[in-house]
Amino acid sequence: MIQINRDGAFHRLTIIPMMAALDNLGGILDKAEAHVTAAKTDPVPLLEARLHPDMFSLIQQLQYALFIPVEFARHFHDGEPPKVGYEEANLADVRAGMKLAQAYLGGVAPERMDAQADLIVPVFFDARQGLTTEDYASRIIMPDFYFHVTVAYAILRHAGVPLGKRDFLGKLRTTRLT
């Protein structure tokens, strides 16, 4: 099989944005904690909040936002993946999980991802089905990851946490045009 030189594009379009989104999520959680502290309210109802009764709670959305990138990265990593996205019960647990997830993601080599873009892997929700890692990323991992991050953001915004689009997008590394 001939390998296409992607020059790290697969990594830049998956791992890097997931790491950035986790950073942004950390900033969003900072605002959520400040909101709870200023309002002198119990954070538990916020962690249990849902947009709709049949949707996951905030803590479950956060767990999935940790689990999904680690689940994806394990296909390109020699190290044992951290166990994140399972037992986090509060924001401190989520923050600890974020650090573990980001450290693990940081250990993924762009060259290895490029070399394995056509590798068939089982999808996490049904091990009997497989996709190339590139299709898995574009069709399942990235949309699913952003879904859970977005719903977490929406729950917090709905609960009155003062958030805007800039919080979701984070700091952009732009180039001045003029």
From TrEMBL:
Record-given protein name: DUF1993 domain-containing protein
UniProt source species: Taklimakanibacter albus
